[in-house]
């Protein structure tokens, strides 16, 4: 399975995320720039090992 | 402006352009005939030039006929519109990189160029200022990247700045570097390699940055760092 990346997008004055499964970060940026050229603000690799906390630490 | 062709800045720019363009196939489409002729007569351009025109239709036909890997065009053309030309070229020849010189410096035009899949954008007013926008754009495109100078990114990509409480504790310079790497999509090992750190140290910086930003995962940490204006992954 391809790794998952979160695209951080600007939408109506706020930031939202959209998860995609692509080969690597370059591919994620390429896809983001093709689909959301004016809205993309960042790309984050989703670490499968990361513990997601219910509350901020 | 006094144009000094023998100045060090100009000589360096010409040498760098020659190097960056030496194996390329370029079509140039400028609406202003004098600008077009002046531009294509620069050695660095001439040696890689496969066609030049002043209108959208001529430019499009040239691209189809000559199959360039780089189109440099201005937004204003003798007839037609440079940004329309970008859209048409991207649809027909997606491998061709697109560099546009914008005459008007408005948010609308910049957004329009970005949405037309421009690989590089420079303002006409920045040419000849010595800031090196054109060379930077050519270099970024040669590396397969997308170039929007800082001035343009500020106009087009303003990140929302909601009312946020002040941070209890500032992020350290290293934590900021790691956060920027996270928001560029890098895995921990790539960030470690980039910054000359161990993967464990990177994980520790990620954890600290998450704590300080009140984030529960890497994505939220990147979002918060963007909202606080601490990082700019598009840089």
Fraction in helix of chain B: 40-55%
The succession of helices and strands of chain A, N to C, reads EEHE
- End-to-end Cα distance of chain B, whole Å, is 30 Å
**What radius of gyration of chain A results from the CA coordinates?**
12 Å
What is the structure about, briefly put?
The complex is a heterodimer of chains A (57) and B (235). Chain A has 57 residues and is α+β, with helices and mostly antiparallel strands. Chain A is built from one helix and three strands.
Describe this structure in words.
The complex is a heterodimer of chains A (57) and B (235). Chain A is an alpha+beta fold and 57 residues long. Chain A has one domain. A three-stranded antiparallel β-sheet of chain A has the order 2-1-3, with helices on one face. In chain A, a hairpin with a 2-residue loop joins strand 1 and strand 2. Chain A is flat. A five-stranded parallel β-sheet of chain B has the order 2-1-3-4-5, with helices on both faces. The mean pLDDT of chain B is 87. Chain B is an alpha/beta fold. Chain B is elongated and about 60 Å long. Classes of the chains: A alpha+beta (57), B alpha/beta (235). At the A-B interface, strand 1, strand 2, helix 1 and strand 3 of A face helix 6 and helix 12 of B.
